[in-house]
Design goal:
6 strands; DUF3105 domain-containing protein; DUF3105; globular; alpha/beta; 3 helices; 145 residues
């Protein structure tokens, strides 16, 4: 697991060049993604996803190495967990990545026991920049990819 400090939190329009893939925080769009247990079937816009992280959400991403079983297990977890959302992220290094504001865990599969611990620790966890902020539908912008 890696942690990152000193992340900016300015609302911006346009794209942001993030240092991590997927990003763990930083400047972001003023509109957040629906993170009420939402499972997206296409990549989402980083800048909107980062805003959801600021609200205390956990973002679950996966690439083409994830098995159908991984995707089903992660989807089932996200769908029953407020302040979480999931999307494919084809360019990420790890098979499965769990991201909260300033924290990221890269895994080989959804069966790793650290998945549950990450959710328990980071959904509305101590890293949350805006505790209690809405995770309801703010926007649903998808990438053009």
């Amino acid at each position: 697991m890696r942690t990152y400090d000193h992340l900016f939190r300015t609302h911006v329009t346009g794209t942001v060049a993030y240092s991590q893939t997927p990003p763990v925080g930083g400047d972001h769009n003023p509109v957040w993604l629906d993170c009420t247990g939402k499972v997206y079937d296409r990549p989402v816009t980083d800048e909107n996803a980062v805003h959801s992280l600021e609200h205390g959400a956990v973002w679950v991403t996966y690439n083409g190495r994830a098995t159908p079983e991984d995707i089903r297990a992660l989807s089932a977890k996200v769908e029953v967990t407020p302040y979480s959302f999931m999307s494919p992220y084809p360019d990420q290094q790890g098979t499965v990545t769990l991201t909260a504001w300033g924290t990221q865990l890269v895994l080989d599969s959804a069966s790793d026991p650290r998945v549950e611990r990450f959710f328990t620790t980071y959904v509305q966890g101590p890293q949350t920049q805006e505790p209690g902020a809405s995770c309801g539908p703010g926007s649903m912008p998808l990438t053009n990819g």
